[in-house]
TrEMBL record:
Transmembrane segments: 30-52, 58-80, 101-128, 140-156, 168-192, 212-234, 254-280, 300-331, 352-372, 378-400, 412-430, 450-467
Gene Ontology cellular component terms for the protein in this record: plasma membrane
Predominant subcellular localization, coarse grouping: membrane
Name of the featured protein: Amino acid permease
Keywords, alphabetical: Cell membrane, Membrane, Transmembrane, Transmembrane helix
Keyword Transmembrane: yes
Biological source species: Pseudomonas laurylsulfativorans
Amino acid sequence: MLMNSTSVGKDTCQEKGHHLQRELNFSSTFSLAFAFISPIVALYSIFGIGILTVGPAFWWGLVVAMAGQLLVALVFAMLVSRFPYEGSIYQWSKYLLGSRFGWFAGWTYICTLPITIATVALGGAGFVAQLLGIDATDKMISVPIALFLIAFATWGNTQGRKIFSTIVWLCIGAEVIGSVGIGVLLLVEFKVNTLSILMPDAQVFAWPEPGISGFFSSKVALAIAYCGWAFVGFESAGAVAEEVKDPERAVPKAMLFCLLSVGAVVAFSAFSLILALPTLEFPAGSDPVTVTLITHLGQIAYKGMLVLFIIGFLACMLGIQASVSRVIWAFARDRTIPCSDFLRQLSGDDKLPTRAFLLTGGLSALLFMLSFTNIYPLLLAFSIAGFYLAFAFPLVGACVSVLKGDWREGPFSLGILSIPTIFAATGWTLFEAVNISWPRYPELSWYENWAVPIMIVFLALAGWVIYSKWASPSYMHSTLSAAVADNE
């Protein structure tokens, strides 16, 4: 990896008349991305599902997903070093393939993240319910708790960078204890299984039917689909690029260091939990994480663990809101969405997009009005797919740029490996998007089985209406180019 001297160079915030404060550094940018991708959320949201549906061999799905996402992160690091603008995926796509392409990239991301906040809130509500000793499976209990968590996260984001930073660093402390510390304890004191438990059997690789449908219906594909959730959020470091000092260098490093550190923590924690599983036969409705921790640590210690889990989930929600609010603000700055003049206003001494925070919190809360049944699996499925669909926009844009001969290296470069990495990352992302969206559950109703494709079509149509009606003419007819961005 190379960090060459080519740079955007100018302070785009100040030159374009915007007033974002460039106060963040590598450490604070890393902490934002770490909170978003939170190892606690990444692991404990999927561990139980993975064990119950695939078995201990689902751990290898983490390895595959981590390798694929590292390719994506390397490409994103190249892009953010070249286009260090507020809004990450939206901006990269816009400068690679034009304003309309960029708008739909940002729209996909904006639609995905409120769903992700709702998903994380619902998962966190389950831990709050357990801590309070009430029924975590009752939607009439879990949904109000989730709404409270969303409200708290929204409040935390609107109070300024100090409150946000405090909660995020609490999260990192909770991660060290709740993931690494407990992992070491389980591995040293409560290891009950041998390494052979991780070895996949023939059923993991078996195809229920011939052809491509058989592959996507296999357990190995399912494991990779679930584990795709564990390693998204690193791109959030790029969402605040105009608030970071020396973003062309600090943001790529924060993005990559975050993904690598979270990947190591998640893989180690999952490894330790699997070797400590007291049984592979769990009662219906039980959670393998809960059973394992209570069996080895007892109820009192488990209650303490729940507090750490809740901190991790709250910090994750704060990180997600911080990221999506910047994309909404970037949209509003370009006057491409309704109420742009209202949403582009910054508030407080820290000059934060408070109105975008409130909008995001409101949208996330509204999602719980749709249904009280089977909401978690559906939200989880689309929130994962939405990330990979959004990721595909700048990756496809980079591929087109290479094929047209327009690709240029930024301050962060892979040298001769840049182009192969771009195509490999694009292939992985498109594969994972299809894998996650595949209708592999015949026991579900048709609309549940096809929930992801249906949502994609609905959001695409809604996006087209909004873009056609509200995007300013100057934006719609702008002739953006990567060369212009490189020379700013």
